[in-house]
Structures are given as structure tokens and as C-alpha cells.
Input
Amino acid sequence: MTETSKRIAIIGAGIGGMSAAYDLINAGKHVVIYEASDHPGGLAAGFKEPHWDWSVERYYHHWFTSDKYMLGLIDELGWSDQVIFPKPISVMYYKGKFYPFDSIPAAIMYPGLGWGINKIRFGFVGLYLRLTNNWRALEKTTTDAWMRAKAGDKVYEAMWEPMMVGKFGERYAKEVNMAWMWARLHSRSTRLGTFIGGFQAFADKFAAELQRRGVEIHYEMPVQSITRQENGKLQVQFMDQAPELFDQVLVTLSPGMMAKLTPDLPKDYLSGLLSLKNMGAVVMTLSLSHALSPEGYYWYNIPKQVGFPFLSLVEHTNFLKPEYFGGDHILYIGDYLEVDHPNFQKSDEQLLAEFLPHLTKINPQFSPDWVKKVWVSKTPYAQPIPLVNHSENIPAVKTPVPGVYFASMSQVYPWDRGTNFAVEIGRRAARMMLEELKP
Ligand SMILES: Cc1cc2nc3c(=O)[nH]c(=O)nc-3n(C[C@H](O)[C@H](O)[C@H](O)COP(=O)(O)OP(=O)(O)OC[C@H]3O[C@@H](n4cnc5c(N)ncnc54)[C@H](O)[C@@H]3O)c2cc1C
Output
């Protein structure tokens, strides 16, 4: 068998799987992607009404100017002119009002920290986290403990605790390690980016480019299992179609799905996968006839403690023009929840009835008849939860089953999950796979 005839299967046409496919096809391998849904993009996918020019992501998405892996890939593809970086306004809550919090002058003016020592401590902690690269020391303690010690209770409770509780729930908010917070504050920009046409436009274009280069993509083909044969080949099994044999397989699903699909994994690796924790997400998207935010704000950081039944309110059309969406105003109402939270079982109507009354707190003029259409997206795998000393628990990309590789959001630590790191881990996996195939 010649090297070029090696067959590689990739499970999942998300950004990670497609990034791996790009390097593997460019290295002359035979690459086949199997995707359960009918479109590429995974968690970053979007949808489009017939009268919209752009798609809307099912879960709000943007890039940071520091997303070097994603922006580097787009550059290699020659599409950098299709990335835009508007500067929308993010706001923080304080005593019933929202204040811009997206620049140093805005942070200085924010009243939630007063004018004395707290503002200085906030500034120093932010600066320290921007400058240090020593995340390994920070993962030994929790965000809660580190921030209380360094920034003080008042600063932590005003600035970061609401986000921790919102993202990780009461159960995990105090347990997440400080390296997670470091990763967020270390390199994120206030300018936010997207692809012209939306993330789905990028995913579609990327998938089409992969196919042009020779990658086979099979949609609506959920993989049921991956097993190693006596001859060393890997058999990929589907629900209805005949199984296929490959030399290597890369899985880009959640750790739980990886454990289910791959019965040959040894006990140690398997228990490592199953011990990883994550939050799910429930995100409602509404198209409205009017703008909601009277001030034109984009991202509302909302402390749940003050009685909102959601974590974030994001007016997409204060980031991108309503004209891209046929004049509709697009609003997201989002939350990270434990996977057994009742919201996963509620109907769209029930969720809408719970959420709508709170929109008058943002705009007293809001009326339910502004709502034109509602979509709800739910995923059990949205945000990995990194506990203390998490680096010891990251499953290896090269699994103990020869030829089987695993690249997921749970392994990009210390970085927080995101499409940028899906590109990084997808390409890292591809490099390792190519290395193994070297004669
Ligand atoms: C609420 C939310 C907000 C986010 N915001 C941002 C943001 O602002 N910016 C950003 O960059 N990132 C953001 N992310 C993260 C980003 O979406 C992910 O990091 C990235 O998309 C992960 O890509 P992936 O390829 O690793 O996995 P996925 O996108 O999960 O891809 C896996 C693919 O596998 C498919 N699949 C599942 N089971 C099977 C099966 N049995 N057989 C075949 N295929 C299967 C799935 O359909 C999916 O297409 C956000 C995520 C969430 C949930």
C-alpha cells in the first residue's frame, strides 16, 4: 500500500474536524468526513430566513483579534478580506442600570467599583493577568480564592463572581481554576470579528474548498462505533449504511460521545474521559420588529442574582446591521446550564413566557408583539469545566487505540473553548497523524 492511499476518517464537520481535514488532504491523504447533521460548522453553525442575506449563529459567536489560529487559517485560504471587526458596546449591570465596559476609559467610569482602592486593585489584577504567562501556577487554585485574595471580595463580587455563577452555576462557580479566568483575560480583545455572511457562510465556504481539494464529506451519517480489526484497520460503523475501513480515525465529538463510540479504549483513558465535566447551553434567538436596546448596546452581562432568568442578552443587530437580516432585529437570550436543568425539557413557548417579561427591564417600551419568530437551540456540551490542577486530566489527542485520535473542546486547556482553538487542536491532531504515517 502506498502512503497516499492511506484512508483517514474524521468524525464531525465542525471547525476542528474541517481544520484537520485541510492539512491531511494537503498532505495527499484520502480524507473522508462523516457528519451527523445536514450541514458543516458544528456548534458554530447558523441558520437563515429566506429574506436574510446573512445567517445567524445558533449560539452567539464572534472572533477576537488575538484568534491567531483562526485568522491564520483564513489568511492561508486567502479570505482575510472577508473578515470584519466592528466594535460593539458591551455593558455591565450596576444597581438597576447598565454601563459600557469595553475599554479602559469605560472601565474607569464604571460606578460599580467606586473611585478608591477597588478600582486600582481591579486595574492591577487585570494588568498582571495580561502580562503573566504562568498559568500553571494559577491552575493550582480556584478563581474564587485567587480573586478574593488579590482583587478583594468587593471587586471579585462586583466584577467576576456574577460571570462565574452565570457560566458554571452555583455548583461549580467556586471550583473552577484560576487558569480559566487567566485565559479569558490574558488575550481577548474588545473588538469582535465575524465572517461576511456569518459563521455559516465561513463553514460552507470551508467545506466547499475541502471538497474541491478532494475531501469526501458525508452529511446525515452519524457514526455509531469505531472498532479495531485484527488486521489493524479501523472499522467505522453507521446506523443504516455498510461499515467502512480506515487506517486512522479522528473523533471531534464530546468526551462522552468519544467514550460511547470507541469500545476498545482501555479503562484508564475511558475513566479519564468520563471524569471530565461540562456545562450545556440553552440559547433562544428572536427576530424582532424593533430594536430592543435604546442605547444600541450589543452584549449585556447580566448577574442572575438580580432576578433575570438568563445570563446574557445579546442584540446581534447592534454588532451587525439589521439590513443584513431583511430589517429584522436579532436578539439572543442565552444561558449555560447543568445538563439536567429543567430548561432543557421546556418547550419554546414555556421559555419565551419566562424570558419576555424581563425585556421591559432593558426597554420599558418593549412589547411582546415585537416578536416575529423564535428559535431555541440546546446543547449538552457547551463549556468544559476546568477544576484545580486540570492539566493532569486532559485526555491525550493520540489515544491508546492505535490509529484513533481525539480532538475536542475539552482538550484546548488552558485556553477556553472557541473556534480559534478548534482550528489549533484540529491541525495539531493532523500533524500527529501525519507523523504516525511516516514510513
Ligand atoms: C453558547 C456558545 C457560544 C460560543 N461562542 C463562541 C464564540 O463567540 N467564538 C468562538 O470562536 N467560539 C465560540 N463557541 C465555541 C465554538 O463553537 C466551539 O469551540 C467550536 O465550534 C468547536 O468545534 P469542534 O469542531 O471542536 O466541535 P463541534 O462544533 O461540536 O463539531 C462536532 C461535529 O460533530 C457532529 N457529530 C456529533 N455526533 C456525531 C456522530 N455520531 N457522527 C458524526 N458526526 C457527529 C456534530 O453535528 C458537529 O457538527 C461557543 C460555543 C457555545 C456553545
Remarks:
- The chain has 14 helices and 20 strands.
